[in-house]
Specification:
Helices cover about 80% and strands about 0% of the residues. It has three helices and no strands. It is rod-shaped. Helix 1 runs antiparallel to helix 2 and helix 1 runs parallel beside helix 3. With about 130 residues, it is mostly helical. The longest helix has about 70 residues.
Length: about 130
């Protein structure tokens, strides 16, 4: 019971690592955001497991553990949800940029064809006026 908060923090770190891994595998997170969550989960795990780093748990009274843990989980859940939404927006933005690029290429090819057709029409008009 002496280091319960340290164990809870370590378990939370492992949970974040697993959640981060599965979110990345199912393409919910981008690489950069995934690496940040991986680092955060690893730091939480170390804060809970390494004796020198878990000395801070002695400063938290025993009756505050549930509130501390619930607050921590809720903050992590909110930020993780926002990270997933941000990753989805980043992926959609990249997809839209690709679509815009393809449309620009198509537009340029159409403009080149239109320019060729106009030149051909202009050449035909000059040939018709010269011959008659």
């Amino acid at each position: 019971m002496d280091n319960l908060l340290g164990v809870l923090v370590a378990v939370m770190g492992v949970f974040i690592l697993l959640l981060d891994f599965f979110a990345f595998v199912y393409r919910k997170l981008t690489e950069g955001i995934e690496m940040c969550w991986c680092f955060f989960g690893f730091v939480l795990f170390l804060l809970g497991v390494v004796p020198g780093l878990s000395a801070w748990t002695a400063a938290v009274p025993l009756y505050a553990y549930p509130a501390f843990f619930v607050f921590g989980i809720s903050m992590v859940a909110i930020v993780f949800y926002l990270s997933i939404k941000l990753s989805q927006l980043i992926r959609k933005n990249q997809e839209l940029a690709m679509h815009v690029s393809l449309l620009n290429q198509e537009n340029e090819s159409i403009l080149e064809k239109l320019k060729e057709v106009r030149e051909m029409e202009r050449d035909e008009k000059t040939e018709n006026t010269v011959c008659h």
